[in-house]
Target: Cytochrome P450 2C23-like
Amino acid sequence: MELIVTLFLAAIILGLLYMFLLKDSFRYAKMPPGPTPLPVIGNLLQVNGKTPYKSLLKLSDTYGPVITVHLGGHRAVVLLGYEAVQEALVQQADAFAGRAQFPLPLRLLGGFGLLLSNGERWKQLRRFTLSTLRDFGMGKRSIEEWIQVEARHLTEEFRKNASSPCDPTFFLSRAVSNVICSIVFGQRFEYQDKRFVFLLKLINENVRLGSSPSGQLYNVFPSMMDVLPGTFNMIKKNGTELIEFVSEMIKDHKQTLSDDDPRDYIDAFLIKMNQEKGNCDTEFHYDNLRATVLNLFLAGTETTSTTLRYGLLILMKYPHIQERVHQEIDEVIGHDQPPSMEHRKKMAFTDAVIHEIQRFIDIVPMNLPHLTTQDTSFRGYSIPAGTLVIPLLHSVLFDKTQWESPQSFNPGHFLDKNGCFKINPAFLPFSTGKRACAGEGLARMELFLFFSTLLQNFSFHFAEDPETISLLPDASSFLKLPQVYKCFVSPR
Model:
């Protein structure tokens, strides 16, 4: 009797398992094409850990602009080329508006904050953050003046080091970070502030570790975090230090908060928290405040400062382009006034160079992966809800159908036949659609004002022949980071 019952139960379990697998196979039957995955590792043998974006681009030669790849146990749809990315993120924006969850930040922040949240949490936090950033000057004259002040401090720092070769990494990160600090924390930090410098080093180290193949491997196989904790432990240690700093800043703000006079983003959020105390479904609570402030601090520091650092390296490699920027600055601005956003309208070549720097360095080649929010039909394929989606920005910024010479650094990509500035719709370094970078306007302003101020005051050059400068990234599994370098700064 026991044997019959056991066999009966086993038959039921096998039947249910079969039905589940059958249902699962039907669910994914009309997914886009892609290489056959191996058990456990999926298609990782076909993806170069150092430059995964290049491997994915190569796969599109065989499978087309919409492909399915398996990154370990994660099934992902990769969108390649301007048309596919634009169609998904703009024309079907709602369906592709989810954000994938990553084990590394998930363990540090628990899924809270603006950057990696979804659903109602993301909608509320994004709406509030965009509105608050505008209230504190983003895109307005007031933030322009803050950047101009910071640019003067940066110029003084470079001038102090004009007699010997210097690494510009932390000069640039201190200046850029102070802009977002002014908005979020209501203050700037002196360049010699030891804790400030220490925090920037933590950010730099975490970005470098997270952009390495081993750092990204943790996101593919999160169970490895506990078995092989080396890189993860370092990222976690650094992240904990940054979280503690943000927590202290919030604590200080609570003690001096005035509901009638918000000084910065933290104050505005705290006031909103007080207003929402009776709402049990509110997203305005401490965990989201801490995580969002950290999101803004990190994102507002690293990507723009890395773009400036990469840009100076490019201008040293191509001194004739740097010289043309110098000439335009001399003609339009001169040396008796600081650069302003009004000047940009008359500086087509400089504007084109800055845009081409952003395109060419391709700072986030894999984008921040998306997630489908619903079962989605796309170009004849069926993509289930909750599917990881990678809109490959590298394939857009280097799309042969959109750019005359995508593999070359060519400011002409942003100039018409009369030498006037022109935008290209495939210029998407900040991504596009509902998940486009919330700080795009601020970053554009910073890049123009910092670049033009530095080049108004200095010439940058390499100790050796410019031909020897390598523009290959030092790390690029997540962010593309330039190789560490030292340069000579000559006052003009």
